[in-house]
Amino acid sequence: MKKTLLIDFFRSVKGTLSRFLSILVMVALGVGFYTGLKAVSPDMVSAAGAFYTARRLADIVLISTIGFDEADAAAVREIPGVASVTAQLAADGLLYDAEGAPLQSLTGTAYVLRVFGYDFAEPPPLNTLRLVTGRMPQDAGECVVTEREAQANPDIYSIGKDLILRGDGEDLLTVLQTETYRIVGTVESADFLSAELGASQAGAGELSGYIYIPKEAFLRTDAVYLLASAEGAAAYTAYTEEYNAVVAEVMERIEASSGNLVKARAARLEAEYKPLLSAGWEELPLKRKEAEAGLAQAREDLKGLKQAIADGPAEYKAQETAARAELEAKKQELADGTRLYKEKKAEYDKGKAAYDAAQKEIAAFLKEHPEPESELAMAKEEYQKGAAALEKASSALTLAKNALKVARAALSSGLPEKINSAVTLLKQYFPIGDMPLTLEEAKEKITAAETSLAEKEADLTAQQKALADAQKQIEEAESKLAQYAEFQTAGEQLAAAEAELKAAAAQLEQAPALLAEAEAELERKLAEARQQLAQLQTLALTADSRYANKEKEIRDRLAAAERELVRGENLIKSLPTAKWQVSSRDAFAGYANYGDTAVNMEAFALVFPVIFFLIAALVSLTTMTRMVEDERGQQGVLKACGYAAPAIGAKYLLYALSAAALGSLLGAVLGFSAIPPAIFRAYQLLYLIPEMEVHFYSGYALTALGAAVLSTVGAVVFSVLRALRERPASLMRPKAPKAGKAVFLESFPVIWRNLGFSGKVTVRNLLRSKKRFMMTFAGVAGCTALLLTGFGIGASIRTMLDEQFGEDGIMRFDGQALLAGQPEGVDFTVPALPEGITETLPIYMQNLDISSAEHPRTMEATLIVPERTDNLRSFIALDDDKTGAMLSFKGEGVYIDGKTAEVLKLSVGDSLRIAWGGSALEIPVTSISRNYVYHYIYMTREAFAAASGSSAAAPNCLLLKLEAAHREDGESKAALSRSLTDTAEISAVVWNSTVIAEVRGMANMLSGVVMAVFTVSAGLLAFVVLYNLNNINIYERLRELATIKVLGFTDGEADMYIWRENIILTLLGIGAGLLFGVPLHGFVIRSAEIESMMFVRTLAPVNFALAAAVAAGFAVFVNALAHRRIKGIDMVGALKSVE
Amino acid sequence: MAFIEFSGVVKEYETGGAPIRAADGVDFAIEEGEFVIIVGSSGAGKTTVLNILGGMDNATAGSVTVGGQEITAFDNRQLIHYRRHKVGFVFQFYNLIPNLTALENIDIAAELSRHPLPASFVLEEVGLSERAGNFPAQLSGGEQQRVSIARALAKNPSLLLCDEPTGALDYITGKQILTLLQDTCLRTGTTVVVITHNAALEPMADRVIRMRSGKVTDMTVNPMPADAADIEW
Predict the structure, then answer these.
(1) Which of A34, A43, A113, A822 could form a disulfide with A676 if both were Cys (CB 3.0 to 4.6 A apart)?
(2) What pLDDT score does A743 carry?
(3) In 3-state terms, what secondary structure has residue A227?
(4) Residue in chain A nearest B86 by alpha carbon
């Protein structure tokens, strides 16, 4: 291609970007949907395959009616073609919460948990576990759960929680070491591939969950399942023919050997069990006695408890009185202490005052006599001296007195000598001078002596008195000193007394606090006592029921032991008919459905892309035709310049080719990466395949690219070839309008004349460009059909629930009460029910595996055998699947639902195969009834009795109808549930509203996704097509539009000039789309359905209205865009010359 | 007051850089019923005058009154109304709707107007009754232009604007068209304004307005206009 032509090409793309993009988008849509939908199936299969390989999913599953032992496993391992074998231990039990209350499944039935034994120390070769969080169990009381369940049900399955299991009618402790398992980790496992876990022998027959425990926790090593892998199967992807062939061959071989193996096992079992059984029967009375003893003990305990409760209040009273008295005594003690203290204090105060006075006195004395001791000693000395002097003076006085006496006597005698001698004597004592003395003189002298003596005597007396005073003073001082010493000791005593008092005061101060404490302690003890009393009383309230529970437990265990023996007997009896069931991976719940689902998706890969490719072709045809015609002048010039036709045409080819290639690339990238994960995510609600890897399938991409190139480039070749055959001159002239301008409508002048010029223009335009007509028509029709399908499916999914459970639906009852086991042989009577329930219907309900000769793979269904048929229709509407006519419920056969009939390829008169206790029942189909959710099959009591060969099963469920007032009121329903389950005969209650609410969330999400996908793709389709049409129309008629605007058309009239054509095409397209949408919806809905559901396959009028309205809405939107362009057209353009 | 009055009309176009003055103070007046020729070379501003007079474009400044109404003050709705009921257009390239027959093309205008002339009557007026059912592509240029004139006349306009009506036609056909226009003006009293670069047409007009560089350079009133058929170029 010449450079200038290349430049021209790029400018063309730039100048006509919206056209280029419309081709690109249509191609991208077609390619995207094709590649994406094509990739879903292989992506889903390979996601599953990768998961199966990672988890080493067994290829073959063996189930025996009598279990497997080590020898069986070894024997199977020896069969040629078997690569490895794993014996899987399993047991089913009912799940209880920590308080011992039974848990409920989503549907309200007992929560059945399957426990798998797994060798954590040495993982088995098949069906391995992968740790996700936490750790693997290390001892018998630990377990792991699947990560998915842990996420979905954290209330039950969180690490650290305990799961408590009980047998359903059997003692699980004969199978397992313990009934309590602590969750220590979460794992990924492949034992279940579907969210529906399938059937169980326990509970209501429906498995709700499963866990893995160390296989050492199993007391019996008999395996329930033998898992085997086929040699060479690992080389092939699951679900492929090759894989199935390899596995089928090995299965046949195992089947062939199974007869002998099962016989050998039967012999071993018989040898093992016979002695055990006879011992068991012997032991049974002993056990019974033991149980009775246990019960007696329990009764005794109960009595003790009751006595304790009876004595409680009196005991408490006594305790209270004693305690209160003690407290009173303590209070008295405190009062006494206080009084004593006060007395002592007064005494002390007195002493203290005396002491203080003495101290004052002593202080004064000391002030006077700073040194009292030495002063005293001096005084004493002086006193002594004084006393001695006094004595001397006294004796001298006495001598003088005597001399005087003598003198007097001498004098009286008058004898001079006597007088002389007397005077001489006197002279010794008195100063009377010398002699000669006359008598007179002597006399005088004696008288003088006498006076002197008197003087001396007085003097002595005074002296004596002074001495006595001194004596007294000394005595006084001595006493003072003694007093001082005494005072000092008194001070010491006083200090001691003070200290004593202080201590006493401190003690007294603390006393009230101690007393308060003592009182508080007392109250606390009393409160405790009261609480204990109250506890005891509450205990008394439940004592009976606990005793009853205990009794039930003991009796249950006893019954279980007995049943165990019976079961053993039955086992022995069943040994001759024992057999193995050899299954492929179909035995894993969900395996087969997943495969079917993946295959179903392929069907979509045809419908969508065909629509989009067809429209892509039409879009590119119109666009390219327009483009080629627009550039006629240029082509003429080029041709005239000497360019060859291929060189000129190459531009258009390149234009279409590059749009197609870019669109394909974009579509493939988006398709491969977006569609499979989106669909896979939706299906993850149902299947447990953890993740999907997106793949790029070059084959699909190339096919899509081929289709895209063919449809776009083919269209170009078609339009270019014609133009390029023309001569340059004619090319340079505007293309003459095609012949046959008059349209057929003109032959009806009445209509034609009344059309007005706009109408005429429109009609002629419509009919002139058939390509454009087809493109728009097909585009809008496709859009409408897609919308109708989308809304239809959305509505189908949403209304399915109402059709199934609504008041006028199929399951018309409001709830089910599950009946506690009824003793066999007792005729069923309806228990007394609380108010609010208007009607009841007892039924026997059982989950079963069903199949047919045409479809040997089993599917699950619920069998319902109503006790009565007269009021059946108030509870369940049995209507014909096709006609909706009411079916009469009678006869020997079975009523199956439409989806079951479809899957199992059964029609009225064919026989349905029901797995029943190890054997298969073949029952003819009487009628096919309408049903949407799950599968229900119905039989009359008589039919069931006849078919199963047993007496008709006792009702195990009561269908309930409520008063209208209760129907929508959750609280009154909860109250009803409580009062119902309080009835001994009823173990659980399920309200349909609960089930619906549970499913509605999922249904709404699914319908939302579906509607979003359909609406978006439909919107794109409509947008591209209508926008393209407007675009071309406006472009082509710029001049016309400018002219009519000059002529005085209003904006609205100018819009209508373009829109009218668009509106007519849209209306026609919508009409056709609504017609075409019906089969499309039917096809898509069948492909999207899963085995356990039949969507409502009819379309409601509202869906037609909605689809038409939304399609019209798209058209309005696109036209609104056109309005802006039309408004922007410059009238002056009308004056310009023709390009 | 004159039927049409231009006073100080300025039209500027913003074209990236400096604005271009397509009309730079245009002043003229036209009396009712006159056959007017606006003549000038390419770029003289005559098309701008036509656009403004035809209500297809707004003036930047100045005023234009037609029949006493100031159309430069009209809003979009009023302009549409003015074009619809007052003005008839004849384009250089006819601008017929290809998908409509000659008669139907005239109907377009007739259906719009309040007091239309019957389409078949107008078609007969322009002498094309026998081609009524033909599509534009089946008509010659002159015939198309006659349909175009008929379309303009069918609206019974008070003003007929013709943009180079003979520009795409040969000499003889052009003459026929001019005759038709002149006759129309004379018979119906419609004011006809013809825009052309061909000065040879001047003699047939009642009034000639000459333009150059966005200005009216000269205006002459012709008391004795020549018959269109007598004009040579």
Answers:
(1) A43
(2) 66
(3) strand
(4) A1048
Residue A281 in any domain: the answer is no
A138 and A217 together in one domain: yes
DSSP line for B159-217: EEEEESTTTTS-HHHHHHHHHHHHHHHHHH--EEEEEES-GGGGGG-SEEEEEETTEEE
User: Could B112 and A1047 be called an inter-chain contact, meaning their C-beta atoms sit closer than 8 Å?
Assistant: yes
In this structure, the answer to whether residues A945 and A1016 fall within a common structural domain is no
- Structure tokens that stand for A412 in this block: 């009286």
Task: Mark whether A51 and A77 lie in a shared domain.
Answer: no
Q: Of A205, A236, A267, at which residue does a domain stop?
A: A236
Read off the amino acid at residue B53.
L
B83 and A1047 within 8 Å at the Cβ level: the answer is yes
Asked if A736 has any chain B CB less than 8 Å from its own CB, the reply is: yes
| Whether B87 and A1048 lie within 8 Å, measured CB to CB | yes
Q: Does A80 touch chain B (CB under 8 A)?
A: no
Based on the fold, state whether residues A961 and A849 are members of the same structural domain.
Answer: yes
> What is the DSSP secondary-structure string of A640-660?
HHT--HHHHHHHHHHHHHHHH
Contact A1047 B111 (CB under 8 A): no
Chain B residue closest in CA terms to A1054 = B80
Cα A673 to Cα A41, A396, A598, A695, distances in angstroms = 13, 161, 17, 8
Chain B contact present for A268, CB below 8 A? no
Closest chain B residue to the Cα of A763, Cα to Cα: B99
For A513-554, write each residue's pLDDT tens digit. 888 888 888 888 888 888 887 887 777 777 777 777 778 778
For residue A1111, the enclosing domain spans: 769-803+992-1139
Answer whether residue A652 is part of any domain: yes
Give, in order, the Cα–Cα distances in Å from B83 to each of A212, A277, A1047, B38, B191: 88, 113, 6, 20, 15
Give the pLDDT confidence score for residue A964 in this predicted structure: 81
How many angstroms separate the CA atoms of A213 and A118, rounded? 6
- Do A825 and A780 lie in one domain? The reply is no
pLDDT tens-digit readout, B178-195: 888 898 888 888 899 999
B83 touches chain A (CB under 8 A): yes
Closest CA to B122 of B33, B184, B32: B184
Q: Look at residue A610 and tell me if it is in a domain.
A: yes
Residue A1039: list chain B partners with CB under 8 A: 95
- Encoded amino acid at A1075, one letter: L
- Give the model's pLDDT for residue A86: 92
A49 lies in the same domain as A67: no
| Total domain count, chain A | 4
Residue appearing with tokens 């069903």: A850
Amino acid letter, A472: K
Helix (H, G, I), strand (E, B) or coil at B26: strand
What residues of chain A score a pLDDT lower than 50? 739-740, 1139
Residues in chain A with CB shorter than 8 Å from the CB of B112 are: 1047-1049
Nearest-Cα distance to chain B for A1043, in Å, is: 6
In a domain, A390, yes or no: no
Exposure of A708 in the CB half-sphere (CA atoms within 13 A): 32
- ipTM at complex level: 0.89
Q: Do A741 and B135 touch (CB under 8 A)?
A: yes
A779 and A901 belong to one structural domain: no
pLDDT number for residue A751:
73
Asked which of A922, A957, A984 is the last residue of a domain, the reply is A984
Closest-approach residue (CA) in chain A for B105 = A757
Nearest-CA residue of chain A relative to B80? A1048
Whether residue A1047 lies within 8 A of chain B, CB to CB, comes out as yes
Q: Is A1060 on the interface with B (CB under 8 A)?
A: no
CA distance A734 to chain B (A): 10
Task: Spell out which residues of chain A touch residue B89, defining contact as CB-CB under 8 Å.
Answer: 1046-1047
Higher pLDDT, B136 or A604: B136
B92 CB within 8 Å of a chain A CB = yes
A1050 → chain B, closest CA residue: B80
